[in-house]
Design brief:
Layout: H1 3-28, E1 34-38, H2 45-61, E2 65-69, H3 76-83, E3 91-95, H4 97-105, E4 117-127, E5 129-132, H5 141-150, E6 156-159, H6 165-177, E7 182-185, H7 189-198, E8 203-206, H8 210-214, E9 219-223, E10 249-257, H9 262-277, H10 279-287, E11 291-292, H11 297-317
Parallel strand pairs: 1-2, 1-3, 6-7, 6-8
Antiparallel strand pairs: 3-10, 4-10, 4-11, 5-8, 5-9
Helix pairs in contact: 1-9, 4-11
Length: 324
Amino acid sequence: MSLQRRALLGAIAATPALQAARGQTAARFPERPVRFVVAYAAGGAADNQNRLVAQKLSESWGKPVVVENKPGGNTLIATETVMRAPADGHTLLSVSLPFGLNPLMFDRLPYDPFRDFTPVALISTIPNILVVHPDFPARNVQEFVAYAKANPGKVAVAHTGIGAITHLSGELLYDRAGIEVTTIAYGGSAPAHVDVLSGRVPAMFDSSMLPHIAAGRVRALGVTSRDRVALLPEIPSIAEQGFPDFDAAAFYGLVAPKGTPPEVVEKLAADIRGALRQADVREKMRALTFVPGDTTPAQFTDFIRNEVSLWGDLVKRRNIRPDS
């Protein structure tokens, strides 16, 4: 028998054993506490939904799932933490748009989103809302634009980091409207809310201001999705207010270090889908205007690539950089 034929027969014979070993690896997972590393401060949109999913997974796995906040560095601190973690599925990175766009904004970056990580699952998508402090004179998007044109560079707008959707939603409007504002970056939604609610910074694009809108502590001018938000039916979209086809939504998901066993990635994705399909989870997420995800790892990979393609042109056209 030729060496080539023996090798082929050996590989065929090994396949069932390999599949059994992989099945055992997935069945044992997780073997210890799992970490979700979040690149934003506690209390914001990314943090809130990760804690919701973490609680459900902890209940089903019988192992703690800990949400660890590591804001700063335009999400690089959290990203590098997970990139250097063991590739065994026990440390995951919560990602949003900057994860894919950072390579377009940094000349030198310590990671590549697709070379160094394996996408696991989309957690949610969510539109932002342009809100202003009640003392700000604008009551709709057109008035906001008119005021900014009359006061170039004098309107301050908060966001949660260069390349975040809270930043790019604004950049898309400024680009379309031809206005100049001063943007101020924060380490997450929660610290930005403090300054917006106090009036120190009069405006923000954000997804987690619903309680403050309801209480009258901020005024909603428009939503960034093409259609209105069910929980705010009286607030028109920006597209309705003179900017046709305006459409911007945040996304949040989880990725694992590259080299994580495929069977563990698939188990993670399946269990996350299961958590997101639970009625109480969907109700809580929708109450915050989140649209729960439902993807395979391959589908989430395609989703990230598509988002990078959609927003890459705006990043390049407006020369958006980490220090901009």
